[in-house]
Amino acid sequence: MRKISCDIFCAVIDNLGDAGVCWRLARQLATEHDWHVRLMIDDPSPLEKLAPDRQAIPVEVHCWRGDLPEIQPADVVIESFACELPARYVEAMAALPRPPVWINLEYLSAEDWVAGCHGLPSPHPPLIKYFFFPGFVAGTGGLLLEKNFAVPPAPTFSETLDVSLFCYDNPALPALLKAWRDGDALVRCHVADGLPRQQVENWLGEAFPTGCQQTRGALELHAEPFFSQDDYDKLLAACQLNFVRGEDSLVRAQWAERPFVWQAYPQVNGAQHAKLDALLERYCAALDPNTATATRVFWQAWNGQGDSAARIANNWPAFRAAMPALAAHAPRWARQIAAHGDLATNLVKFCQSKL
Ligand code: TRH
Questions:
Q1: What string of pLDDT tens digits covers the 355 residues of the chain?
Q2: How many of the other CB atoms lie within 10 Å of CB of 174?
Q3: Which residues carry out catalysis?
Q4: Which of 96, 118, 198, 287 could, after both became Cys, cross-link 292 (CB 3.0–4.6 A)?
Q5: How far does the centroid of ligand 1 lie from the alpha carbon of residue 17, in Å?
Q6: SS3 for 104?
Q7: How far is the CA of 135 from the centre of ligand 1 (A)?
Q8: Cα(174) to centroid of ligand 1, in Å?
């Protein structure tokens, strides 16, 4: 039988999430569903860091800038995050006797409206584009999760709290570092390359190159290299608490089954606050009131609500105290959000119903 062909279009806007999400999806469609996948990406450079082993994966990576040379469109065309397809490619799609299944893969959100919009058609005669929304609940497209992903066992109890730190510019970070430095318990913070490292450097007042370690009071800081996605997943599982951001690291923190703190991608209109509150609503629903309050207050402060620096410092002890309950909650939560099927499998089923 002929393999289903699929073109995934990805525009790297900023950061790593666009490439990160598209690569994971491409890899899964190729290796788990035996699709013939071309990843059309306007800047392939992030893939070198995210997936150094990509040559071993049967995904064709094409650099796409502006228009494309004439190519035959695939059976399934995925436009990620509303990146606009090259005009010539859309014309070629429309000229086919049997038009491809055209998917607009949307951003992840836990908001209620998502399930109502998932799968809706948007007519572009003679083509139809379908909205495909990742999500946390039934009726959405689900979340990216590989079939063979196995959660490593929880780290053994240790006096030191291992924390990974991946965030955007965050005015509350110095207050958190200070709270850890001055606290009674030892904190070992694995600082991600990029923005987190730059902010820690500012706080330290000195350069903090990859591989270096610094100690301030009860806080030990480690300047981590940029890990491959697979190794980053391992780091998340090896820590007892993970600070994550955006979309893909948020999803991976949940599969790692550890307590986590999410910084939503900041938007000019402040739309991230609705996204944050929607996820908190679902994530905290089954928690006892004290744990739920500690989580809400801490996440909201981390996302800049109120006097975030003071709130982070004042509420760290309560959040720290909530961590055993959050650790117990983590595997249940992961099971709950995985119950609606993984995104790649849901996408395959959806496309097969339209082919
Ligand atoms: O990089 P991000 O901020 O990406 C963002 C979001 O996707 C956001 O929703 C979107 O609007 C914006 O991009 C354009 O955060 P995210 O989504 O967590 O992506 C980071 C990727 O980097 C993820 O695939 C994990 C990976 N990563 C590594 O592979 N190694 C590392 O060491 C680190 C720190 C991250």
A1: 789 999 999 999 888 999 999 999 999 999 999 999 999 999 999 999 999 999 999 999 999 887 777 789 999 999 999 999 999 999 999 999 999 999 999 999 999 999 999 999 999 999 999 999 999 999 999 999 999 999 888 877 788 999 999 999 999 999 999 999 999 999 999 999 999 999 999 999 999 999 999 999 999 999 999 999 999 999 999 999 999 999 999 999 999 999 999 999 999 888 999 999 999 999 999 999 999 999 999 999 999 988 999 999 999 999 999 999 999 999 999 999 999 999 999 999 999 999 9
A2: 16
A3: 18, 247
A4: 287
A5: 4
A6: strand
A7: 17
A8: 22
Closest by CA position to 64, among listed 19, 94, 20, 102: 19
Nearest residue CA, atom 15 of ligand 1?
246
Ligand 1 pocket, residue 245 CB under 6 Å:
yes
Q: Is 232 in the pocket of ligand 1 (CB under 6 A)?
A: yes
Q: Is there an atom of ligand 1 within 6 Å of 272 CB?
A: no
Write the single-letter amino acid at 235: L
- What residue ranges define each of the domains in the chain, with the CATH number in brackets? 5-142+340-354 (3.40.50), 160-338 (3.40.50.2000)
Phi, psi of 206 (to 5 degrees): -155, 165
> Which of 28, 48, 197, 247 to mutate to test ligand 1, by most ligand atoms within 8 A of the CB atom?
247
Two tokens, residue 260: 């986590």
Q: Ligand 1 centre from 336 Cα, in Å?
A: 23
What's the CA gap between 91 and 331, in Å, rounded?
Answer: 47
